[in-house]
């Protein structure tokens, strides 16, 4: 029963993301495009990681990114440690406007949702909090190719 519930929850996330993607297409019109990258990692040890990364862009620059990642484990201590690491990683961004995140923990899963509006975010503050971003930003904007390369380095596949 628990396995069925986990699969059901995963399918709900996918359906929700597809619905948001469809609505975004309708609202954004033809000038905006959506590229989706996915990751599915099943390491040999204690966890499973899935991710969906949705980029709204104009073909050259990313306007916004929405990510949903799940990490599964049957070990509560492992999940607690991962959640603590994620909270520490995202905490510096808590007051940065147009950078939103949420971390939830269920019985055997952590769900992380992050939305970054690159078109509106204060890039200087973003770079102060995340200096690596300065390697990717061009003319105060986030190039599509750079974001896709970041996701590829994590093991994601983009459409």
Please give the alpha-carbon distance between the first and last residues: 33 Å
| Topology order in helix (H) and strand (E) letters | HEEEHEEHEHE
Radius of gyration: 16 Å
CATH architecture descriptor: 2-Layer Sandwich
Mean pLDDT: 84
The CATH superfamily name is: YehR-like
Counting DSSP H or I runs of 4 or more residues, the number of helices is: 4
Helical residue percent?
A: 25-40%
User: Which fold name corresponds to the CATH topology?
Assistant: YehR-like fold
> How many domains make up the coordinates?
1
Q: β content, as a range? A: 25-35%
Biggest pleated sheet: 7 strands, antiparallel
Class from secondary-structure proportions: alpha+beta
Number of strands: 7
Tell me, what is the CATH class?
Alpha Beta
Description:
This protein has a single domain, classed as 2-Layer Sandwich (YehR-like fold). Strands 1, 2, 3, 4, 5, 6 and 7 form a 7-stranded antiparallel sheet that branches. The protein is α+β, with helices and mostly antiparallel strands and 159 residues long. 37% of the residues lie in helices and 32% in strands.
């Amino acid at each position: 029963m628990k396995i069925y519930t986990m699969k059901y929850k995963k399918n709900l996330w996918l359906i929700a993301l597809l619905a948001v993607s469809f609505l975004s297409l309708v609202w954004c019109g033809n000038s905006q495009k959506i590229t989706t990258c996915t990751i599915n990692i099943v390491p040999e040890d204690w966890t499973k990681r899935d991710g969906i990364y949705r980029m709204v862009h104009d073909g050259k620059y990313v306007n916004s990114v929405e990510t949903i990642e799940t990490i599964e484990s049957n070990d509560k201590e492992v999940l607690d440690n991962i959640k603590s690491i994620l909270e520490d990683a995202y905490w510096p961004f808590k007051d940065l406007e147009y950078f939103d995140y949420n971390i939830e923990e269920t019985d055997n899963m952590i769900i992380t949702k992050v939305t970054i509006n690159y078109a509106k975010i204060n890039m200087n503050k973003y770079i102060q909090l995340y200096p690596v971003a300065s390697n990717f930003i061009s003319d105060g904007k986030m190039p599509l190719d750079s974001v896709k390369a970041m996701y590829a380095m994590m093991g994601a596949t983009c459409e």
